[in-house]
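Possible regression after last week's pipeline update?

I re-ran a chain I had predicted before the update to compare outputs. Posting the input and the new output here so someone can diff against the archived version. Not blocking, just want to make sure nothing changed silently.
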Amino acid sequence: MKFRLKRSDIIRGTILTLMVFVVILPLSITIFASMKTPLELGNSTPLTPPSGVMLANYLTVFQVGGVFRSFFNSMYLVVVSLIINTFLASTVSYCLSRFEFKFKKLVLLLFLMGMIVPVYVTEISRFGIIKMLGLYNTHWAAITIYAGADMMQVYVYMQFMSQIPKSLDESAMLDGLPLYKIYWRIILPLLLPAVATLGILKMVDIMNDMYIPFLYMPSMKLRTLTTNLMAAFSDSRLGAWQNLSAAIIIVMLPVTIIYLIFQKQVMRGIMAGAVKG
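New output (post-update):
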């Protein structure tokens, strides 16, 4: 039995292969560079694998970069921001999807405008508010910004909630359960795939963000992984490419490990959201 490839399959396969290379090549170059000596880096091409597994560059990053303290700061921002963000986004979506009230469309429009207006337009006023609240140069400056819900999160949660029968809410109300317990005991557990998906996306944003920590938390003891490694290796003596590459891999590792642990929940959430959307 002959197996003939269609032209569309060949085109699709070629595009997917190119996309894989676009992702894999920069990552491979960075990993290779992080394990090379300066001499090896200068005498080889970027795609040439290192002669051996050399971890000296990683040790330099840990010794000079102050990784442990900055890692704690990054994870503190991630955990606290995610808890508050999940609570805010899911409760707002619960109200918008389950109840009819005055100015409901206006609330949705305001969330939509938040996505349309560029962040830099509102940066001066946001900076002034953070300073007026006395949060500048504290963890809570960044947490307050990260914890805010956006339209994309509200939309995804509302899509999931639209598939939860309202009869569940009504039965719980007849049993005398108050609204906050209905949300906590019934709605939130059914939203866990969406919580995992949006949580991973939010975590990637926070871990990779350099702008907000740099602007709102300039103190040395508050530096995150990104701002600390940037400051440590911007020095001309230590900022060699092999050290920078090792620092990039270290910043990338926590998110990658957490994604690998929760990848089933994330994929389940994406697939369910796509079908329900």
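Follow-up from reviewer: compared with the archived run. The radius of gyration is 23 Å. Marking as no regression found.
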